[in-house]
């Protein structure tokens, strides 16, 4: 099988070296900068038609090792799967996301280790797409700019009641309270996030303005008590089947005239197919269990049918590519510390995930959209300015 596979790989002319389980090496292209080390000979037949989930999974499980710059590793893996894989993506299965399933999935991803996340996130631990005015900003500044961008779009003002759905470690909640004088309720399903988030609220003396709770979005009282609602990086966990319920819930939480901001990753495909060549399958299995990405039209339709009016949409795809690149670089620079915090298998997952997602966003495999919606007043009017000029003053 190896004799058949080698000429095919050599035709791709990639800067790749192959190292076998017995120590033998062969260069498959000029000036190899990446070494693919096969540790299990049983993997060879599967490489005839590889996919990104096969390669990524084999790396995570220790069946192969990858040596070289991560960006090049991801690019070469993509080139190989495009040339030799079948490239097919199955239509998504509409899963029934109940509260127990969602809580388990969130705990798997977010309760890994607060200290681990602190290694490579910004100082406020904002685990979502940053906002770059030029693309050259440092991560801390770009995340503060993102928080300000969200608050400006929501037209926050002193005394506003803001609900933060999926509040993470409370970075946005604290920022909104501190910089805009708002009262914030944040909810999360991660106990580890909640613990550290509350500690940080207390450390900043914001207990009178910020309250963080362990709660499912479906358990919130739908009495329109909030002036503004924001959901950042959360609706990816909702599931296709529950999108209408999710949007109806957001609409019922905000008062007439109020605003709802949904910030999240969206699919390139209208039918919600996962990222091709197996990347989506890898993420679902190893990173975000039960995660599902709807297309912009799907979430837009559900928002409109809930009674909210979409008033602004912005794509931040390249902003997220840059964010993920910075996260990946920061993690790579502190691998020795990371190895002391999480299991080796988990670290392998995160190395591949961050670098792979940066590549995927750059290549337009997936997108990220901020969708601002207004809940119309009884006469159909709303409280927004006539233009966006206030956002950039």
UniProtKB/TrEMBL annotation:
InterPro entries: CFA/CMAS, CfaB-like, CMAS, DUF7884, SAM-dependent_MTases_sf. Gene3D superfamilies: Vaccinia Virus protein VP39. Keywords: Lipid metabolism, Methyltransferase, S-adenosyl-L-methionine, Transferase. SUPFAM superfamilies: S-adenosyl-L-methionine-dependent methyltransferases. Residues 12-75 form the DUF7884 domain. Coiled coil: none annotated. The keyword Methyltransferase applies. Belongs to the CFA/CMAS family. This is C17 cyclopropane fatty acid synthase CfaB. It comes from Stutzerimonas chloritidismutans (Pseudomonas chloritidismutans).
